[in-house]
Amino acid sequence: MYSARNFANQYRQTGVSSAVLDASPHELVTLMLAGARERARLAIACLERGDMPRKAQAISDAAAIIGGLDGALNLEAGGEIADGLQALYDYAQRRLLAANANNDAEPLREVDVLLGEVESAWRAIAPAR
User: Fold this and answer.
1) Cβ distance 114 to 84 under 8 Å?
2) CB 65 within 8 A of CB 11
3) What's the rounded Cα separation, in Å, for the pair 68 and 98?
4) Is the pLDDT of residue 14 over 60?
5) Distance between CA atoms of 48 and 85, rounded to whole angstroms?
6) Quick one: how far is CA 73 from the chain centroid?
7) What is the pTM of this model?
8) Cα 93 from Cα 18, distance rounded (Å)
C-alpha cells in the first residue's frame, strides 16, 4: 500500500530522525505519523507563545509529512482503505491550512487526534520482525 522510498525521502526532508535508515516500511509509516502529530503539537505550542514563524514552519513540516504519506499510497493495491486514507490526508491538509491562515489551534488539535487514530490502528497491525 505504501512505497518505502517515498517515505524515506519525505521523512529525511523534514528532519524527523535518523531512525529512518533502519526502519521497515511499516515502521516508516509509524514514524511519519508520529512526526506529523509532533509538528501539529509544536505548532499549537508556538501559537500559544506567539511564535508565528516557527508555527508556520511546524505546520509546513506537518503538511510535508502528510503529503509524503498521501503520495506513497498505492490506491490500486490498497483499495477502500487507501481511498479512505487519501481522503483523511486531504482533509488533514485542509485543516492545517485553516490553522495557519487563521492562527487557530483547534484544527491542529483535530489533525493530531485524527492522525493519532490512524497511528494507533497502524501500530496494531505491525508485522512480526
Assistant:
1) no
2) yes
3) 20
4) no
5) 30
6) 13
7) 0.83
8) 25
